[in-house]
Design a protein that fits this description.
single chain
């Protein structure tokens, strides 16, 4: 009789634990489904927004052609080089500032 009581309690406790675990998994699966649906909606909105922005931007100029005027090409090249030099100078300033901060930290 004692073994029957012990095994009955063990089986009932296992069934109760399995029920609680199954319920938790079901609720998690339902929540995951809701989040996936929301993510799909956000992705659709993002795709629409990207299409709108691409349409608003229009066709992009791919740059000068082979038979363009040399003065125009030279002016564009000079402008690109000036922009690159400006970015290079800003980057160097950031690197110097970072180096000084690290030197002050490690002294």
């Amino acid at each position: 009789m004692l073994w029957f009581s012990v095994w009955t309690v063990l089986v009932l406790a296992t069934l109760g634990g399995a029920f609680l675990l199954g319920r938790s998994l079901w609720r998690s699966a339902v929540a995951l489904g809701h989040e996936l649906a929301r993510a799909a909606e956000v992705t659709a909105q993002l795709a629409e927004r990207v299409d709108e922005l691409q349409a608003a931007a229009g066709p992009r100029d791919t740059g000068p052609t082979l038979f363009a005027d040399r003065a125009v090409l030279r002016a564009r090249l000079d402008a690109l080089r000036e922009a690159a030099a400006g970015r290079r100078a800003e980057r160097e300033q950031r690197h110097v500032a970072t180096r000084l901060r690290w030197q002050a930290y490690w002294r």
